Backbone:
C-alpha cells in the first residue's frame, strides 16, 4: 500500500483533509531522514512506511473516546503512534492535549523537531516512564514498547479510573493477556488490525490489580 492509497483510506475513514495528509507526508520525510542517523524505524520497513507505520498508527484514533482531553503516548520513539495522533488531532480535535513521553534524548530531540516543524499541539517529555510525573491521561497508548503486563504498570501510573489503553499487539497477544491476568483484572477488546491479519489492537477500558 503506497502513499496515495493510504491517504485515501485516511480521508474516507477519518474525514481528514489534504492538509492533514500533507502533514503526514512531511512527517514521513522527517522520519525517513532521521532514521538514517538514529534507529527510529527498522530499515526494512522504510519502503512500506505508509501502511506499516502511518496507517497502523492512525487506526488508534478511531478507538479513542471522543470525550478524551489528554492523550499520552508512552515510549514514543519515532513518533509512532504519537506524532500521527498529533497530526490528526490538529485538524479533528485541536483541543486534545497530546503528550509524547520518551527517555532517549536523541529521539526526544526528533520528536521536538516534529512538533515544531509540523506545528503540533504536542508536549514532549524526555524522561523515563517510571519516573516522569503522573500524567492523569484519558488515553494511554504504546506501540512495540513492552509486554502487556508491564504496559499496565505504566498505565496505572499515568492514567486514572476512566483511562482507556490502546496497545497494538502481534500474534502473541493471547499469551501476553494470559500473563497479565495473573496480576490484573482486565476488561479487554481485541480488534483485528487494519494492516496486519496476525495483529490486533487491544482496547482496555478497565484494569485493576488483582
Residues:
Amino acid at each position: 500500500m503506497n502513499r496515495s492509497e493510504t491517504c485515501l483510506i485516511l480521508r474516507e475513514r477519518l474525514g481528514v483533509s489534504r492538509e492533514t495528509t500533507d502533514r503526514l507526508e512531511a512527517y514521513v520525510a522527517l522520519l525517513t531522514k532521521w532514521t538514517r542517523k538514529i534507529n527510529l524505524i527498522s530499515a526494512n520497513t522504510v519502503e512500506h512506511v505508509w501502511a506499516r507505520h502511518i496507517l497502523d498508527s492512525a487506526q488508534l484514533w478511531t478507538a479513542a473516546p471522543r470525550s478524551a482531553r489528554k492523550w499520552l503516548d508512552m515510549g514514543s520513539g519515532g513518533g509512532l503512534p504519537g506524532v500521527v495522533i498529533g497530526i490528526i488531532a490538529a485538524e479533528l480535535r485541536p483541543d486534545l492535549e497530546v503528550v509524547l513521553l520518551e527517555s532517549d534524548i536523541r529521539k526526544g530531540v526528533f520528536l521536538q523537531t516534529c512538533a515544531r516543524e509540523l506545528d503540533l499541539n504536542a508536549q514532549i517529555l524526555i524522561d523515563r516512564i517510571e519516573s516522569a510525573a503522573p500524567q492523569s491521561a484519558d488515553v494511554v497508548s504504546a506501540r512495540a514498547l513492552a509486554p502487556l503486563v508491564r504496559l499496565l504498570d505504566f498505565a496505572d501510573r499515568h492514567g486514572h479510573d476512566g483511562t482507556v489503553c490502546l496497545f497494538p499487539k502481534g500474534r502473541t497477544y493471547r499469551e501476553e493477556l494470559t500473563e497479565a491476568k495473573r496480576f490484573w483484572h482486565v476488561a479487554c477488546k481485541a480488534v483485528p488490525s487494519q494492516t496486519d491479519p496476525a495483529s490486533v489492537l487491544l482496547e482496555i477500558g478497565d484494569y485493576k490489580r488483582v
Remarks:
- The beta strands are 70-74, 97-102, 122-126, 139-141, 164-169, 184-192, 200-209.
- The two ends are 43 Å apart (CA to CA).
